[in-house]
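Thread: "does anyone have the structure for this chain?"

Original post by V.I.:
We have the sequence but no experimental structure in hand. Need at least a predicted one for the grant figures.
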Amino acid sequence: MSWLVLFVAGLFEIAWAIGLQYSQGFSKPMPTVATGIAMVISLVLLARAVETLPIGTAYAVWTGIGAVGTATLGIVLFDEPTSAARLSFILLIVVGIAGLHLVSGGH
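Reply from O.Q.:
Generated one for you, tokens below.
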């Protein structure tokens, strides 16, 4: 269950990271509020997950999910570069997340 909570926390991390772009430096009220809410939810869920998961593993997975999701949405939503090297390094983060899950006894 903790891994699911951690995964959802990572999704909310993606939401607030993307929200930063839409809030334009917190100058747009609705995206700013949505970003703040996503931040709080993400941190609360991360705190729940680390009640039973090692903090180092949970934090690495949380930030990894956020990094991969944000980089992917940056490509899709904001026309960011999609070079083979960039995509390869994003894939390495995915491999790292999966590896941490496997060696940490994730189910």
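V.I.: this helps a lot. The radius of gyration is 15 Å.
O.Q.: and The mean pLDDT is 95.
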